[in-house]
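Summary: Need help interpreting a holo structure output

Steps to reproduce:
1. Submit the protein chain below together with the SMILES for pyridoxal-5'-phosphate.
2. Request a joint structure prediction with the ligand placed.
3. Inspect the structure token block that comes back.

Expected: a single structure record containing both the chain and the bound molecule.
Actual: see attached output.

Input attached:
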Amino acid sequence: MSETKILLTEKEMPKQWYNIQADLPKPLPPVLHPGTGKPIGPEDLAPLFPMALIQQEVSQERWIDIPEELQEIYKIWRPSPLIRARRWEKALNTPAKIYYKWEGVSPAGSHKPNTAVAQAYYNKKEGVKRIATETGAGQWGSALSFACNIFDLECKVYMVRVSYDQKPYRRIMMETWGAKCVASPSTDTQAGRDILAKDPNSPGSLGIAISEAVEDAAKRDDTKYSLGSVLNHVLLHQTIVGLETQKQFEKVGEYPDVVIGCVGGGSNFGGFAMPFARDKITKHKKTRIIAVEPTACPTITRGLYRYDFGDTACTTPLLKMFTLGHNFIPAPIHAGGLRYHGMAPIVCHLHVLGLIEAVAYPQNPCFEAAISFARTEGHIPAPETAHAIKAAMDEAIRCRETGEAKIIVFNNSGHGHFDLGSYQKYLAGQLEDYELPEEKIKESLASLPNM
Ligand SMILES: Cc1ncc(COP(=O)(O)O)c(C=O)c1O
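--- attached output ---
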């Protein structure tokens, strides 16, 4: 029998990130200044980000070197394994081969440190002392806390209230790495105080937490802002995941027919899928690439492709993306990291170009799929990842019906060890599915800026 775990040596770890901007058949729409409606320049972003990251954001170079110091840090958990889910295949009685790229091996337990350490590195190099950020599920906040600790940077995390209450151990993890974490909306910022004045019980949202972190960074000279998803440079850093996966498939002489990832802001999916999308553009591969989102926050499947703010308080530049409107507050589903009103502009652009597909699932069937996976493969996935698992399971079941032996791979973006409260609710039959009424989407889309 062939191998179950396909491993790369540290020497085989990719030494460059892949920038899809160099291969896009049509360039990305520009990012616009909310005041002038004109494309923004590097100086507009300089108060928030170090110049190296701003350059990566707009770079048209196909390959960007991973600094050696960073490669050394990546070696703490990279290269991550590509695993054949043989027991799950058997349980699903499918002729398909199912593989998963396992990002739960990082210190924070997800793909998020791949960009956290890169962002902390470039901030440190440019003399920044402190970083402010938001976190949905707590995965990003803990990844950045870990990264800031490595580079001796202060870190302040605004954590979406609903996750802060659901996952106290994520906060303790951040504090263990030396960061400060508050529930968002908080009283520490004007944006937070304004929301609390309107709704003292606000469950929070990623859009609100981003407003708080941006305000924090804009007000202090020693502080920059860091975003864990959505932006081009974040997806760029995550391409190490897809590039490793391609090398691992080369080792076993295979190539996937179906590539799947869950989407919150689009970073684990983007980083995993873009090297495969490149093969579709340059080698005319027929791979199906599927982004999976929750029906409670169906950004690509039900949102509009328009210019919108990345945050609730309208402080960010305008991004062309699928959006549910920056005021949209998703229902408190347990996949906190998928509760974002917008989507990475690159992921949206790939969808508009017909290079990727999108599907949406309610949370109960995702937990059902995650449990089927956990009972055969062992690993308990994060609720976000459970969405990718559900899509992989559906593909495998379709193969059972058609008899096709397709090769399916999904990005297993993180473990769910801090999400056991949600598993407990699912097992007790207490987990709600939220169908989003059309009126709620219409109401929220009414807030879109008129560009
Ligand atoms: C495990 C895991 N997967 C996926 C996501 C979704 O984010 P993104 O779309 O940026 O990968 C998150 C976000 O917190 C996460 O924690």
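--- end attachment ---

Reviewer comment: The mean pLDDT is 96. Residues 110, 136-137, 139-140, 229, 262-269, 337-338, 382, 384-385, 413-414 surround pyridoxal-5'-phosphate (CB under 6 Å).
Status: needs-info
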